[in-house]
Amino acid sequence: MIDIKYIRKNPDRVKLNNKKRFKDIDVDETLVLADKQSVLMQEVESIRADANAIAAKIPGASESDRAGLISEGKELKARSKEKEDELASVGRELTELLTSFPNILKEDVPEGADEASNIVERVVGEPTVFDFPVKDHMELGEALGLIDTERAAKISGSRFTFLMGDAVLLEFALVQYALATLTAEGFTPVVPPHMVSTKAMGAMGYLQRGGEEEIYHLKNDDLVLIGTSEQALGPMYMDEILDPAKLPIRLAGFSPCYRREAGSYGKDVKGILRLHQFDKIEMFSFTEPDESDKEHAHLLSIQEKLMAGLGLPYRVVKLAAGDTGSPSARTWDIETWMPSQGVYRETHSTSNTTDYQTRRLHTRIKRDGKNEYAHALNGTAFAIGRILIALLENNQQKDGSIMIPEPLRPFMGGRDKIEA
Q1: CA 77, CA 233: separation in Å to the nearest integer?
Q2: Which top CATH class is 115-418?
Q3: Angle 291-294-297 (CA atoms, 0-180°, nearest 5)?
Q4: Per residue in 76-110, pLDDT tens?
Q5: Tens-place pLDDT, residues 110-124
Q6: In this structure, what DSSP letter does residue 395 have?
Q7: E-only strand ranges, 233-363
Q8: Who is most buried in 23, 159, 266, 291, counting CB within 10 A?
Q9: Could you give the residue numbers annotated as active site?
């Protein structure tokens, strides 16, 4: 949620920001509601002050005056209740409007409606070349006993899988490799709850404008399953004031992720690219406001360090305004080469959400005697399914075996390949 004070001071910039993001939100109506709220608050405070003044007079009033004061007090109480109800209604309407506003984009975010306007900032490595027919990850995984989607569909439905044997060892080799890298960068490993309250999820900005369609909701308990550990790590410091001396706070969450994949029917249905359940290691940082851009660049550098260790070809892409999620002020994606498709596909994302989430979470810092909102950032370390696809396909050998990248070998019993 963006600050109403910011909208008051910068209405034209907010209108332009909404236009860049293709969001049809009435800024003028929002300001009218905000003004109405301010007037009502003043009226409520004035009525309460009058009521308190009358209440103070009653104990010392004469018998003849007391009845009149009591009657006047009751009338003020009724007026106060009426105005408070109106104020609450306006407040709800204003909050609903404010939560529909996307975050203010950084100046360097390119304009454009969708991914066609994204900017490729750099390409690292060359697409892998083979002197034999390339197999996709399902052919490789099934032949080596690593992936079983048919039996998973039998018990859970489509878009679930069993990872088997060396695929499991490879997953946890990736986890160990990532955690070793991240702890050296000052990240604290966290295994978060897999279920969070709708209050916490709503404060993170994932329940507005259709976001709830993507989420598994446990309605009997008013809990939702997380779609990324970011959704549990962000609310970790909800309603708290952080010590600036301890910032940045860097967390590395490892968890399953649960996604309904609403609206993606018929898209990427083959294999493990787009599942309802997958594991991921996610970076999350809390910083001082003037440090978040520096931290954002740092998160991207860590992602590239992890990718360099695996030796996978990739490119860094800055998302255009229309392709940037509402909570984010800027997002970079890393897209990794997928040989069987002959394209780069997103495997990593990192976003600076500035104070968009922390404002609703009430996560603050105290500087110079004043409270202000911390900034929050997130970034993928490894989304296991997608990085497994890249590893299997880019490292496949003519005999059907898979070469294991060197940083993962210590966690795979020292082996350099997966073979039948």
Answers
A1: 44
A2: alpha beta
A3: 150
A4: 888 899 999 999 999 999 988 998 999 999 999 99
A5: 999 999 999 999 999
A6: T
A7: 241-242, 249-258, 277-287, 314-318, 330-338, 343-352
A8: 159
A9: 259, 274, 346, 349, 386
Which three-class secondary structure state does DSSP give residue 290?
helix
Domain ranges of the chain: 4-98, 115-418
Position 51 scores a pLDDT of: 85
Q: Are 256 and 227 in contact (CB under 8 A)?
A: no
Which three-class secondary structure state does DSSP give residue 189?
Answer: strand
Q: Are 289 and 353 in contact (CB under 8 A)?
A: no
The architecture CATH gives domain 4-98: Orthogonal Bundle (1.10)
What secondary structure, in 3-state letters, does 358-379 show? HHHHCCEEEECCEEEECEEEEE
The answer to whether the peptide bond before residue 127 is cis (omega within 30 degrees of 0) is no
The answer to whether 4-98 and 115-418 have equal CATH topology is no
pTM over the 0.70 mark? yes
Question: pLDDT tens digit string along 119-157?
Answer: 999 999 999 999 999 999 999 999 999 999 999 999 999
